[in-house]
Design goal:
Distance between the termini: 86 Å
Number of helices: 4
Shape: elongated
Structural class: alpha/beta
Number of strands: 7
Strand content: 15-25%
Largest sheet: 5 strands, mixed
C-alpha cells in the first residue's frame, strides 16, 4: 500500500510583519543610545562689518599659550608643566591679583552687585595641540582650563554671597561671568613633530 503524503498545514503569517514592527518599536524605545559628548563652548560674535583688522590684535601679555605636543607633554607659556599644575597657572593668569605687568591688563568696569571693579577683560587662553597628542590628555587639559574658571567663579560667589556659583540666581551668575568671562581659544590641531 502506498502511503499518501500528508499535507502540512500552512502557518498564518499575516500578522508576522505587525509583530516584527512592534518589536522594533519596543527595542528602539527601551534601548538607550550612546550620545556623543562634547565640550560646551560659546563662540565669539562675528566681527563688525566696519571693524579694522588691527582692532583684533591682542597684546602678548593678554594671551596665555598652552601647547600639548605629540608626546602629551604640556607647555604653558615658556615652561613645561604637569596637567596638575595647569589649573593653578590658569587661575593666576585669569585673575592677575597683583596686577603683574606680565599678565593680562586690567580694565575698570561697572558690574552689577560689585560696583566698580578691575577685570582682566581682554585675557585669552590659547590652546594648541599636536595631531599626535592623545584625546584623553587633550580632554584633561580642557577640563583643567574650565575648572580654573569654575573655581574662580565659586570663590567669588562664596566671598560675596556665601553660596556656590551654581546656587546663585541668573543675575548674580551673569555678574560673576562679567568678572571672570571664559575665553578659551583653540587652534586647529597640526602635526608639529614626529613621534620617537
Amino acid at each position: 500500500m502506498a502511503k499518501r503524503k500528508r499535507k502540512v498545514p500552512d502557518i498564518n503569517s499575516s500578522s508576522t510583519a505587525d509583530i516584527a514592527f512592534l518589536l522594533l518599536i519596543f527595542f528602539l524605545i527601551t534601548t538607550s543610545m550612546d550620545t556623543d559628548r562634547g565640550l560646551s563652548r560659546q563662540l565669539p560674535p562675528p566681527p563688525e562689518p566696519n571693524q579694522k583688522k588691527d582692532d583684533i590684535k591682542l597684546k602678548e601679555r593678554n594671551v596665555l599659550t598652552v601647547f600639548l605636543n605629540l608626546n602629551d607633554q604640556l607647555m604653558c607659556g615658556n615652561d613645561y608643566i604637569s596637567i596638575d599644575q595647569l589649573r593653578a597657572r590658569a587661575k593666576e593668569f585669569i585673575a592677575n591679583v597683583d596686577n603683574d605687568e606680565h599678565k593680562p591688563e586690567k580694565v575698570t568696569k561697572e558690574v552689577n552687585f560689585f560696583g566698580t571693579v578691575d577685570v582682566t577683560e581682554k585675557h585669552v587662553i590659547s590652546l594648541r595641540c599636536d595631531r599626535g597628542s592623545s584625546y584623553k590628555v587633550y580632554l584633561m587639559v580642557q577640563n583643567e582650563l574650565v575648572a580654573a574658571y569654575n573655581e574662580l567663579r565659586n570663590e567669588l560667589a562664596q566671598s560675596k554671597w556665601n553660596k556656590n556659583y551654581a546656587d546663585l540666581d541668573a543675575e548674580q551668575q551673569e555678574a560673576i561671568r562679567e568678572i571672570y568671562s571664559q575665553k578659551i581659544s583653540e587652534a586647529e590641531p597640526k602635526k608639529y613633530g614626529e613621534k620617537k
